[in-house]
Amino acid sequence: MFEPKIAIIGAGPAGLTLARLLEHNNMACTIFELDSDRNKRDQGGSLDLHVHTGQLALREAGLYEKFKRLARPEGEGMKVVKFDGTVLFDSGHNQIHNPEEMSWEKPEIDRVLLRNMLLDSVKPETIQWSKKLLRVEPSSSGTKPRFDLHFADGVVEKDFDLVVGADGAWSRIRPLVTNVQPHYAGVTSVELWALDCDKHHPWLSEYVGSGSCFMFDEDRAIQCQRNGNNTIRAYASVRQPENWSKDCGIDWSQPVAARKELIERYFADCGEDLKRVIEETSEELRIRQGYMLPVGLEWQCRPGVALIGDAAHLMTPFGGVGVNVALTDALDLARNLISCRDALATASSNDFEDALIEAIQKYETSMFVRARQNAEKTARGLHGHFQANGAEEFAKRLQQASDNTA
């Protein structure tokens, strides 16, 4: 059987899910990851996996039962607060008693747990760590559209039939198909942490509840989420120019003073509880700028190249769909690659090339539609949340959804 030589750039959720799906169906691949090991970087907070997208990908990868052991269905709880502290909606104090009685429509899972589960599901030799990709060049050997990967350590990995960019916002693979780069989305977030909340921050623990707590208002927001390790992350977000964090005059290296100034400048008229959230999430402070690719971005299919996840359709987090779309990309591409395998088994080299191109084209056709739909949803969220009535509109939608499922 002729097997395509597949490289996946990036060991994030999308790249790892694709690798697991391929290996689960006896197709080999190699992941090249920039980080030196799984613990090199903070993986971010909590995310929800939806039943028909992210969860479906894990089901087909044979990982659903492991996912259920790690996920927190009580994390679906939502609390929405107006800028003055008025609680508009609250399902955010769900205390889990029996997981089987909880909703599994959109359970939360910590990013680090999801990634570790995926890392443990692929063969150790599948991942090459500390591989900083410098460039991708067409292979000089043979006549088929193969690619060579040039890495910072001087190694050149040659003759890949398919290179999959799963390398995020600033993808090194995306320039092979389009010159379009992400642009600033207009919002910068100050990420704040509170550790060991039940012991050291009991008020904050009770206020946020078991899931997420949101305040949306004109040009500003406060978003909190509980993580499974008894940590709460909060994001104080402001609609400001791209250089705001450098030009605003706040010294972010002095966290106590920075929090105080952030409150005084941008959240002074908020309810005392909301200001207290910023004060109590005191263990970490990081600046996060929001970037996005244009809604509806498409390109001409290039043989031997595919993009998944943020590399294909970077969105802001204001639609709550990013990772779910990424895992669906991985599932869709894997299905198309696996479906043409029988044709590849007995094909001539020319037939193989045509089958692989067709698989990529089928994937991109559905991915472009999926990306546009979800990017439009996210763009509406980015616009609507930062309006004067953002909290009220969000709470109204949540209440309607709750009523429909009651």
UniProtKB/TrEMBL annotation:
Keyword terms of this UniProt record: FAD, Flavoprotein, Monooxygenase, Oxidoreductase
Flavoprotein recorded as keyword: yes
> A Pfam family for this UniProt protein?
FAD_binding_3
Q: Which InterPro entries did the record assign?
A: FAD-bd, FAD/NAD-bd_sf
Query: SUPFAM superfamilies annotated for this entry?
Result: FAD/NAD(P)-binding domain
Cite the FAD-binding domain residue spans from the record.
Answer: 5-339
According to the UniProt entry, its GO molecular function terms are:
FAD binding; monooxygenase activity
Protein name according to UniProt: FAD-binding domain-containing protein
